Every structure is written in structure tokens, then in C-alpha cells.
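Preliminary data (for renewal application), FE2/S2 (inorganic) cluster complex.
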Amino acid sequence: MELVINGKTYPVESDADTPLLWVIRDELGLTGTKYGCGIAQCGACSVLVDGEVMRSCVTPVQGVAGRHITTIEGIEADDVGRQVVAAWVEHQVPQCGYCQSGQVMAATSLLRATAHPTDDQIAATMTNLCRCGTYNAIHAAVHDLARGTFATASAADADGLAGLAIDGSRPS
Ligand code: FES
Ligand code: FES
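Predicted structure:
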């Protein structure tokens, strides 16, 4: 079986019913996607599959073979994802960072489908849990993006992403 992740094709040896999360983290070494609950409740494991958010801890890998998967490592290749990351940086959203790759995936999926979501649409989509309580900052960032009042700062984004540890690692 093969997986297409962030535009690159990977051969995969895991069993067909292995959760996608284990494959991308343990077999392929893409560790920006996190394990939280393992039962589709927290959203830490969220990835995009053909642009739609999916909780990889409960997604059998064979179900996404050949589809286009995006993880946090590749999100800035997506025009919307790049703006979401920049807004996260601007609002200094991450605290420990553990949940934030999943939060970025949820916001990117929402804004790809609906450029100017309503408050109700935002609330219905941004359901990922954050034990650090970054909800107010997430809300502010998504609202900026939804109102179209946030402009990507391009080159500054990459430094900001690393500095704010959006992939769950700690800044050095
Ligand atoms: S680890 Fe998948 S939703 Fe919590
Ligand atoms: S769990 Fe720490 S930033 Fe969300």
C-alpha cells in the first residue's frame, strides 16, 4: 500500500486496519501529529484528507490509501493553511503546543470550505480540546481569518511557526 502525504508518496508496510496516526508517526516518522485520546474526542491527531479534517487515531490506513493527506509538516504548502499558521503566530496561540497541529488542521479545513464562516459555523467546527485553555486566542485568530482582516506575512511565518512550537516541540 502507498500513502500520499504532503505531496510525497510513501510505501507503507503496516496492516490495513492500523490507525493512520500510528503509520504517520511510528512508521513514517512524521511526529507533528499528536496522540491525545485515541477515541476521536480531542482532535490532537487531526490531519487533512483531500482537504477535509479527519481524526487519524480512528481512521484505518487502508481507507486513505491513494488519497491526498496533509499533516502539519506540509500545511504551509496550502494557501489557506499558510494563512492559518500566520494568524496563529500573530495571536501567539500555542502554549505547550501539543494540541495545536490538530487545531490548525481544523481551522484550515473550515476556511477551505467556507471562507467567511459565521460564529455558529466556527463553534461547530473548532471542537478540538486544549488543556492549556488557548480557546480565546484560537477564537481571535479564526475570527480574523473569517473576517478577511488578516493578511499573511509570508517569510516571517516559518520562523514564527518554529518559535511558537506549533508542532508540539519546545523551542530551543
Ligand atoms: S487522539 Fe484522535 S481525537 Fe484524540
Ligand atoms: S494543549 Fe497545550 S496548547 Fe493546547
